[in-house]
Amino acid sequence: MSHYDTELRAAALIEQERYQDAYQLLLPLSDKDSEYTLMALGWLLSSEVIDENNNYDAMSYYYRAASEGNPEAFLRYGQVLLGEGYASEARTTFEGGAELESLGSIYWLGSMLVQGEGGPVDEPKGISFLRQAAEKGHIFAQRDLYRIDFRNTQSLFAKAAIAIKIGLLALKAGKEIVVDRHSEKIW
User: Fold this and answer.
1) Contact criterion met (CB below 8 Å) for 81 and 93
2) Alpha-carbon distance 36 to 39, whole Å?
3) Which residues, including other chains, have CB under 8 Å from residue 4's CB and lie 6 or more apart?
4) What secondary structure letter does DSSP report for 187?
5) 101 secondary structure, DSSP code
6) Cβ–Cβ < 8 Å for 83, 99
7) Is 161 exposed, middle or buried (0-12, 13-18, 19+ CB in 10 A)?
8) pLDDT at position 165, please?
9) pTM value?
10) Are 123 and 130 in contact (CB under 8 A)?
11) C-alpha closest to that of 140 among 164, 116, 113, 176
12) From first to last of its 187 residues, what are the pLDDT tens digits of the chain?
């Protein structure tokens, strides 16, 4: 079976939720630097869908895919780094993904800048990234901007209106998850 055919078979197994079989099929291809293989192995190892959960191996696969210029790899690598407590490295990784216009990386970078996570607070720059992501439909970026508005407003009426908008975004996010649980608008 060719490399391409193996990847197609693994994709079909993932669709069938036969994750362990897909992992075993892809593992021998891990040295080929195929973006699909690297991303799939990273996801399988970091998503707790197989027995061999290992975020450090997942980071290695995502790092290699990011080195090939895959925008989503920057997002996934940064998320795993952040989950493992490497906030500074995650922030740098999201910067790389943002340069490649990864919507999720733009959101995460903006959020980290606003909160001062992984480096100094830079609220104006963070808000700029959050706006960029929100304009492209990222639901959590929209929510975070509303939260900033909520924090900064004095009017109780304005706070109530913002709270309603945040609630409506939660419904929108739920719908997006039902339609496409891997949507770039929520990660």
Assistant:
1) yes
2) 5
3) none
4) -
5) T
6) no
7) middle
8) 95
9) 0.89
10) no
11) 176
12) 788 999 999 999 999 999 999 999 999 999 988 999 999 999 999 988 887 778 899 999 999 999 999 999 999 999 999 999 999 999 999 999 999 999 999 999 999 999 999 999 999 999 999 999 999 999 999 999 999 999 999 999 999 999 999 999 999 999 988 888 777 887 7
Length of the chain (residues): 187
C-alpha–C-alpha distance, residues 122 and 119, integer Å: 9
Amino acid identity, position 74: F
**Tokens in use for 128?**
């700029």
Instruction: Please give the sequence-ordered ranges of beta strands (E in DSSP) within the chain, or none if there are none.
Output: none
Between helices 3-15 and 19-26, what is the axis angle to 10°?
170
Alpha-carbon distances of 104 from 50, 79, 88, 152, 165, rounded to whole Å: 25, 10, 17, 25, 21
Cβ contacts of 36-43, under 8 Å, gap ≥ 24: 36/7, 36/11, 37/7, 37/10, 38/62, 38/64, 38/65, 38/68, 38/70, 38/73, 39/65, 39/70, 39/72, 39/73, 39/76, 40/7, 40/10, 40/11, 40/14, 42/73, 42/76, 42/77, 42/80, 43/76
Q: Which of 135, 100, 94 has its CA nearest to residue 114?
A: 94
